[in-house]
Amino acid sequence: MAAFRDMEEVSYGLLSLLGANRAEAQQRRLLGRHEQMVERLLEMQDGADRQLRETLAVEEEVAQSLLELKECTCLGGAKLQKLEVELQKASKEDACLQARLCQLTTELQELREMEEDLQRQERDVDEDNTITIPSAVYVAQLYHQISKIEWDYECEPGTIKGIHHGPTVAQPIHLDSAQLSQKFISDYLWSLVDTTW
After folding, report:
1. What is the mean pLDDT of residues 188-195?
2. Mean pLDDT across the stretch 87-94?
3. d(C-alpha 160, C-alpha 174), whole Å
4. Global pTM?
5. What angle do CA 94, 98, 104 make, to 5 degrees?
């Protein structure tokens, strides 16, 4: 603005010189000053153009940065949404696992109770067996005394083996229960028992 005022002053000065018909020296001096002012004005205009280009370059950089930031924000928003979906899914799975864990804990507790019950029953059976075992041994001994049969307990399943110690001679017993009926086997074994007391 100061340059325009100076230019205006120079112009008025020139007009007044021309109007007053002054000396040529003053006219040259004013014209030189006018040229300096025009040069200065052109320099200022070049500086302003340069500053404008720099400002436009900075604005372009800022605009590019804003676009990149907006793109990053969009990507971040998408990632955030994906993470929220995964978090919800994990929360549901966690709830399902918690429910399953509660169910398994209940089942485990029931199994422990059943195990304790079974152990209690086994103890009861063991106590009962201590009572019945002597009578079972007695029955087995009585049966051996009467039948005089010594059984082979290590034979194959389905085979009846042993030795009958009869009144005169020992006789082997070898019967196949797959080929013979239970009635025949029972009758045969009872026939070996000595009826004379």
Report:
1. 81
2. 89
3. 6
4. 0.32
5. 140
